[in-house]
């Protein structure tokens, strides 16, 4: 495309050209009459970019969020005004909490109808604007077709720079139809903050002075190169490395320095170790509620441990914690700087580090459960799928077995292998899996879903078939319950159970109705392996329905034990 003289075309076409120029080959959405000119642009450029039409905007937005997580560049979602934008809000919230680059384009009423509460009119700057913490880094509205490339370019910059996150671009219907000869702008690379040399020297000094250091790695913006550098840093300094909540693929789980995940359902020994550390070096992780055990493992606002926090977003530094050293740096620059730090010949804490890994290994040994042992299910999956398999999940206790027993291959070897919402959004797993299967069709994708979680976005099974996904297996863990909530009820109000029981469909029959393969329901551990073999070999999307006793509420305890304890208290 010649940048200097672009032929005149509608702004809708120019927008699709701009996405192509940014390297985007897939956009997700649900069509609406508010952005027909953009759909026509997708039609015109169908040889270079596809529009994946979804069955609900929550599915489309989650798919775009997953695209952002997988690629490190903004995931792209298109929705129509009021109703479409409202449905897509959960994807924005997830991208915000997970620091995922994403752009949500929303069709808007025509400019000459504005402010009348015209059909489906919403003011998105108010709805998602920076005043509403948690939805968007920036909301822009394009008034002038000639400035559309400028808005798209800024959206890409804002979504990727600093702490990555979602951006909303509002597109008035009449603007999209206007002709423009504005040239598209070249591919954007985010500006990246690098750590100052003095900061690295200070970090070295803090490490030398420490006795029990601990690294928490996580957040977004990691590259394979930066992850490899982090590994070299951990090896040279003999540091134990834990991964932040739902960023378990930042560090290879099989590496001898790996200490486990610092998230929900944390290994108690790991929690004790983080508390006991005298220096915590948080690299890329946000230090949110889930990673800090409710701001308790690291006490807010002044932790007992010395704290070094390295983060790409300056506004994250000192937001909650008064750290001893705050370093504003992108992971792409921080990784190599850490690897370049001169390490001492030996570290006094080498045994502490080895013990951290031994605790992680010991935590992989489950206590047996009958008739269906979820730990064995996870181990069986790991035996049958390659390292670069992408695992997705939504929210619910079922995810605890995945997070505890699956060993995520590090991003440095396999790219991202974990698509999971730190926002705790139920319904994330199915659309994320469909997106992954469409975007990276050569890789196997496994979604572990809860029965509650699955039905929030299960309609996207249709999208998987319509767009030709193949290497995709959904495993529904059916305990007949919004089990997580039941667990909290039994803890806080023992025996007073309301609203958490589920009447479920026949999940396998449902999947078959969508054109998926599904076998017999799996009620016992021994039946899982043959079901998985078939699902992996069938050549089209497959669903496995597992029946789990409601009482088996986590990998560590039962509902009856929780209730008994609460009643005794
Ligand atoms: C969109 C959304 N709605 C509600 C919740 C609150 N919530 C968290 S876990 C959960 C139950 C999950 O049920 P299920 O998927 O069956 O998993 P289980 O806990 O039974 O393993 C609920 C309702 C949430 N996290 N997200
Ligand atoms: Mg359930």
Largest pleated sheet: 6 strands, parallel
**Can you tell me the residue ranges where pLDDT is under 50 for at least 5 consecutive residues?**
none
Query: Level of helix content?
Result: 25-40%
**Hey, roughly how much beta strand do the residues contain?**
15-25%
Average pLDDT metric: 97
Task: Give the beta-strand count.
Answer: 20
Strand sequence of the main sheet, in spatial order? Answer: 3-2-4-5-7-6
**What is the number of helices?**
22
Instruction: Report the structural category.
Output: alpha/beta
Rg over CA atoms, rounded to whole Å, is 24 Å
Ligands present: thiamine diphosphate, magnesium ion
Outline, from the CA principal axes? Answer: globular
Termini Cα gap: 71 Å
Notes on the structure:
The chain has 569 residues and is α/β, with parallel strands linked by helices. The chain has a 6-stranded parallel beta sheet, sandwiched between helices. A 6-stranded parallel beta sheet has the order 11-10-9-12-13-14, with helices on both faces. It is built from 22 helices and 20 strands. Helices cover 38% and strands 16% of the residues. α3 (57-71) packs across α16, α13 packs parallel to α21 (528-537) and α19 (483-492) packs parallel to α22 (559-568). The mean pLDDT is 97. Thiamine diphosphate is lined by residues 395-398, 424-427, 450-453, 479, 481-485.
């Amino acid at each position: 495309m010649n940048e200097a003289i672009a032929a005149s075309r509608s702004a809708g076409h120019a927008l699709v050209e701009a996405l192509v120029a940014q390297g985007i080959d897939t956009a997700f959405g649900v069509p609406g009459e508010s952005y027909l000119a953009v759909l026509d642009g997708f039609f015109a450029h169908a040889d270079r970019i596809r529009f994946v039409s979804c069955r609900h905007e929550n599915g489309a937005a989650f798919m775009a969020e997953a695209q952002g997580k997988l690629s490190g560049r903004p995931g792209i979602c298109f929705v129509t005004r009021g109703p479409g934008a409202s449905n897509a809000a959960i994807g924005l919230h997830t991208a915000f909490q997970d620091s995922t680059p994403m752009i949500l384009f929303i069709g808007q009423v025509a400019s000459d109808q504005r402010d009348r509460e015209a059909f489906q009119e919403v003011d998105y700057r108010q709805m998602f604007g920076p005043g509403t913490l948690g939805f968007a880094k920036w909301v822009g509205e394009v008034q002038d077709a000639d400035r559309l490339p400028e808005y798209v370019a800024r959206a890409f910059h804002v979504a990727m720079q600093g702490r990555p996150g979602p951006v909303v671009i509002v597109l008035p219907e009449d603007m999209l139809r206007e002709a423009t000869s504005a040239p598209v702008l070249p591919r954007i690379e985010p500006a990246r903050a690098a750590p100052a040399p003095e900061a690295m020297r200070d970090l070295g000094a803090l490490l030398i002075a420490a006795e029990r250091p601990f690294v928490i790695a996580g957040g977004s913006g990691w590259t394979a190169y930066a992850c490899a550098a982090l590994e070299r840093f951990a090896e040279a300094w003999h540091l134990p490395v834990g991964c932040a909540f739902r960023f378990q693929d930042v560090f290879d789980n099989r590496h001898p320095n790996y200490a486990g995940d610092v998230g929900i359902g944390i290994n108690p020994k790991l929690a004790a170790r983080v508390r006991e550390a005298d220096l915590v070096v948080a690299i890329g992780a946000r230090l949110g509620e889930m990673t800090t055990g409710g701001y308790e493992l690291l006490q807010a606002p002044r932790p007992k441990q010395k704290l070094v926090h390295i983060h790409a977003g300056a506004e994250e530094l000192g937001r909650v914690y008064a750290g001893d050293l705050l370093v504003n740096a992108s992971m792409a620059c921080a990784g190599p700087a850490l690897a370049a730090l001169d390490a001492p010949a030996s570290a006094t804490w080498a045994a502490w580090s080895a013990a951290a890994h031994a605790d992680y290994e010991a935590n992989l040994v489950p206590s047996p459960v009958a008739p269906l042992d979820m730990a064995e299910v996870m181990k069986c999956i790991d035996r049958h799928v390659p390292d670069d398999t992408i695992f997705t999940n939504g929210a619910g206790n079922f995810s605890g077995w995945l997070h505890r027993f699956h060993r995520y291959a590090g991003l440095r070897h396999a790219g991202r292998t974990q698509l999971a919402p730190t926002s705790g959004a139920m319904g994330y797993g199915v659309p994320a899996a469909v997106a992954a299967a469409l975007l990276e069709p050569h890789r196997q994708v496994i979604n572990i879903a809860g029965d509650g979680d699955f039905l929030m976005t299960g309609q996207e099974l249709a999208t998987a078939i319509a767009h030709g996904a193949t290497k995709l297996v959904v495993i529904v863990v059916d305990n007949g319950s919004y089990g997580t909530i039941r667990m909290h009820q039994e803890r806080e109000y023992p025996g007073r159970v309301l609203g958490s029981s589920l009447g479920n469909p026949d999940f396998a029959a449902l999947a078959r109705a969508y054109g998926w393969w599904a076998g017999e329901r799996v009620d016992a551990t021994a039946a899982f392996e043959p079901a998985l073999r078939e699902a992996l070999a069938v050549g089209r999307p497959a669903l496995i329905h597992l029946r789990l006793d409601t009482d088996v509420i986590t990998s560590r305890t039962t509902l009856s034990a929780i209730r008994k304890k609460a009643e005794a208290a």
